């Protein structure tokens, strides 16, 4: 399979979500173009530690500097299947919602929208302000998908890792690349 997916990591809490997305995409033989914002790097180190941050980078086929606006993924001619931003900070959400392509992460997200490719944002904040809700509405109106990282409690996960893996699988499933990877509601 020659499929590529952009994985953006912003500075919001929830770095484990990015790592689980990267692990799942790697198991599916899907190449990851990784974009870590400056604060995304900081949060990964804080929440995951050096070993897990190194693993995240190792799982990527390409690592892009968040300030490199000349990177291939900044162009619609770059053949990717879509993008996941995990986690997505409210700052990144606001920039994407308003078309402010001022970083590689927000530019790559804007490219997905303009090319009508899937864009999945694991928006991390609570509680939400009206500005957050309006930005989520704007992205949704542009065909982006807002996926708050809410655990599927009905699956009775044993631990935090099971919760983040399920959320990551839902995000990957929303790209519609293959058969569903997330555990389904048992009914």
Description:
- It is a single chain.
- The chain is an alpha/beta fold.
- The chain has a single domain (4-173), classed as 3-Layer(aba) Sandwich (Rossmann fold).
- 43% of the residues lie in helices and 16% in strands.
- The protein is built from six helices and six strands, in the order βαβαββααβαβα.
- The chain has helices at residues 15-27, 38-59, 90-98, 104-114, 130-141, 160-173, and strands at 4-9, 31-36, 62-65, 83-88, 119-123, 145-146.
- The chain has a six-stranded parallel β-sheet, sandwiched between helices.
- Helix 1 (15-27) packs parallel to helix 2 (38-59) and helix 1 packs across helix 6.
- It starts with a strand and ends in a 14-residue tail after the last helix.
- One of its GO terms (molecular function) is flavin prenyltransferase activity.
- Residues 4-168 form the Flavoprotein domain.
- Belongs to the UbiX/PAD1 family.
- It holds the Pfam family Flavoprotein.
- It is an enzyme of class 2 (transferase).
- Mean residue pLDDT: 96
Q: State the share of residues found in helices, binned by percent.
A: 40-55%
Instruction: Give the strand tally.
Output: 6
Outline, from the CA principal axes?
globular
Q: Largest beta sheet: what is the strand line-up?
A: 3-2-1-4-5-6
Determine Rg (CA atoms, Å).
Answer: 15 Å
Main beta sheet: strand number and arrangement?
6 strands, parallel
Look at the structure and name the CATH superfamily: Flavin prenyltransferase-like
> Class, according to the CATH hierarchy?
Alpha Beta
Keywords: Flavoprotein, FMN, Prenyltransferase, Transferase
EC number: 2.5.1.129
Protein name: Flavin prenyltransferase UbiX
Family: Belongs to the UbiX/PAD1 family.
């Amino acid at each position: 399979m020659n499929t590529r997916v952009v994985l953006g990591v912003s500075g919001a809490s929830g770095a484990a979500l990015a790592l689980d997305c990267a692990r799942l995409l790697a198991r599916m033989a899907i190449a990851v173009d990784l974009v870590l914002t400056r604060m995304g790097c900081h949060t990964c180190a804080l929440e995951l530690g050096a070993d897990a941050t190194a693993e995240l980078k190792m799982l990527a086929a390409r690592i892009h500097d968040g300030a490199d606006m000349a990177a291939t993924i900044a162009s619609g001619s770059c053949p990717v299947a879509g993008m996941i931003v995990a986690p997505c900070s409210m700052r990144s959400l606001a920039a994407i919602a308003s078309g402010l392509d001022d970083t590689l992460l927000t530019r790559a997200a804007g490219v997905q929208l303009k090319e009508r490719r899937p864009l999945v944002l694991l928006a991390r904040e609570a509680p939400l302000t009206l500005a957050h809700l309006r930005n989520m509405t704007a992205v949704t109106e542009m065909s982006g998908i807002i996926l708050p990282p809410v655990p599927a409690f009905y699956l009775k996960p044993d631990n935090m890792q099971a919760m983040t893996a399920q959320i990551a699988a839902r995000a990957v499933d929303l790209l519609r690349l293959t058969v569903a990877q997330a555990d389904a509601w048992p009914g």
